[in-house]
Amino acid sequence: MTTTDVPLHGLSADEPFRPTDNTATIEALREVIFGEHAALHREVRDVIVGLADTPRSGATYSQQTQDAPELLRAVIAGLGRPAREIAADTQLRGALCDWAQIAAPRLLLVLTGHFDLVIGAILGLGNDSPYQQECLAELDTGAALGVLMLTELGGTNGADQQTTATWDAETSGFWLTTPSAAATKFMPNVAEATTPKTVVVTARLILDGKDEGVLPFLLKLRTPAGPTEGVDIVALPDKASAPMDHAMIRFRRVWLPREALLGGDWAAIDTEGLFDCEVLPRRRFHAAISVLGNGRLDLANAAVASARAALAGLVNYTRQRRPGSGTLMADRDAVQLGLVSALAAVYATSVLGRRIRDMRAESTTSDPEQAIWSMLAKPLLSNTARQVLTMCRQRAAAQGALRINYLVDWIGNLEAIITAEGENQIMQITAGKSAFDLSTLRLPDTPAQMPWYLTMLAGRETGIAAEVRSGTGESIGIDARAAELATATAERLAATALVIEGLATDDPAARELAVSAAAVYSLERIYRHGAWYTEHRHMTRHLAAKVSAELRHHHSLLTAHLPIMVAAFDIPELPGPIFSPDYIRAWQNYADWDDTTFTGTATEPQ
């Protein structure tokens, strides 16, 4: 099916919808974004907005790090469910991360560590022992904050981590030790002294002098009485943004009970000290970190959620702002071009992230294919969000520089997301070089016949995959080519996801707008890689003209309907003036100036 095979249903670039006509279309587009979970998202949104975590001036970095544990306890109470239930509910946990990034950015910074990486590890790998249940009870209310301690100063290093946990039969426990400076655990957010911290720490199990591979252990690192005996914690220097109490940690023979081992149903030490594990030693690390997949997906979706909010704010602002000549920003073609390109990317990646979340809710963390989906999603969604947020920050100019408008806080969190739970490029290379054939990945309900532009995306992906398998191609090396393959696959899946959801909606206008956004997303990527298509004889002069012509058509259509497309994002009126229906009045209210304090007569620009 070509783009022109989809009926236009009366949409016109010259006759935008009137606001009173749009309710059904906005609701239909909202379903494209949120699926069946729009009501859940609104419920969670309202709880998080109620936390009133407004960016504030004058707070030090250290003071801001102390806000996160208080926000965590407040949101758990507000949702009315223990943290273990939130962690186990893929849709609820995901909505919580999405809206925390938007309306409580400091809360987002501790959510995946607490819910995905620690509680998730206990639920997925625990054995219900009294020790583990005691830790879980403290995590349930936020009385203790959960943190993963994986990365070492010398690098994550997978199955070659150096921290050791040596079994001691006499005490029926383990001695946790940092054998070298390179083995120091690096960057966990555990420096702040007033909040108890319960951590999952990865270490090499040493049993009777034999190295049994890297496994996870549960440790009460900080209690109300202070750090556990033998733990040295040193606060790291401040970051530029995304305030967290990062630290470097050394273990000097820290004792752990036998029940601290989190081995799921595949690794255990019995009361006699006999170790049983069905997984080969070099594979135990990968089994241990299976919980990372959930965290990666939650961070990816949270990233693109803030891109939706940023677009909603910028579209609102550009329809009020009249620079210099008196022309609205929204009517300037350069501004329109950036907004439409960002809108198409945000729609495509939002739908892909939601579809993967839906798949995850029906699957298990042990499904190897789900790990691949997460490794594809996190780089694409977070890199897209960074590009969109940067554009919004620049177009908003002075407004964008102020924290009250959230953009710089969202960008700061994006830098943390890109690094957390697997740096993006590493994720792309790992996915691209995996034994799994990425070009065979399909979303549920993918139609047999796809638009021609999706066929072109798939053609480039298949070509790159062949080069990765054969070790050929014009790239610098295999790692760079593998990363390129992962990106091509993720982009093809994002465009496909939006086409599927667009064609499934019953509202004709929403269908056309969603498919048009998918066309823009795909055609821009074909245009960007024109040299590849030309070199591989997939691009004739006639086809290049068609790409350009259809891109212009869909750009014009989306430009005319930007307001209703961002209305589907369901972003509330955040405290920042760019989200206000009258940004000048918002600043006037901030200054506490009423109209009577102004003298003279204002003139409208001619």
Distance between the termini: 48 Å
Rg over CA atoms: 26 Å
User: What count of helical segments does DSSP give?
Assistant: 22
Residue stretches low in confidence (pLDDT < 50, at least 5 long) are 1-10
Question: Which secondary structure elements does this structure contain, and how are they paired or packed?
Answer:
Blueprint: H1 23-34, H2 38-49, H3 61-65, H4 67-79, H5 83-88, H6 90-103, H7 105-125, H8 130-141, E1 145-149, E2 164-168, E3 173-177, E4 185-189, E5 197-207, E6 210-223, E7 226-227, E8 231-235, E9 246-251, E10 254-257, E11 267-269, E12 275-277, H9 284-288, H10 292-318, H11 333-361, H12 368-395, H13 397-401, H14 407-419, H15 424-433, H16 452-470, H17 478-504, H18 508-528, H19 530-535, H20 541-560, H21 562-567, H22 583-590
Parallel strand pairs: 1-5, 2-5
Antiparallel strand pairs: 2-3, 3-10, 4-9, 5-6, 6-7, 8-9, 11-12
Helix pairs in contact: 1-18, 2-6, 4-7, 6-7, 6-10, 7-10, 7-14, 10-11, 10-12, 10-14, 11-12, 11-17, 11-18, 12-14, 12-15, 12-17, 15-17, 16-17, 16-18, 17-18, 18-20
Question: Main attributes?
Answer:
3-stranded antiparallel beta sheet, 22 helices, disordered N terminus, 7-stranded mixed beta sheet, alpha+beta
